[in-house]
Amino acid sequence: MTDEEIAKWQEELYELECSCTTGPVMSEEEQLRRIREIATGEFRKRMRSKLEARIRELPQEIANTSDPQKKARLQLDLELLTGKRKAGSTDREATS
User: What is the pTM of this model?
Assistant: First the structure.
């Protein structure tokens, strides 16, 4: 990766950091590690793995939850993550 490419990625990461409201500012070493991760596709793989794990966990959480509001929120999360909505369901039903 060239110095110009690294500088471009650092600027983009800085802009992202500035738009975030939590967490510490990334060190230059952390920025370079994340840039490499993004450039090699490892970041996408890691995020996909986290998504798949969450999709697997949600049905169990839904089954173990007795609070109707929490259950509705978890169900909505699952629907949003999988892109599958129940016929006739609305956001209002999930949050009321």
Answer: 0.55
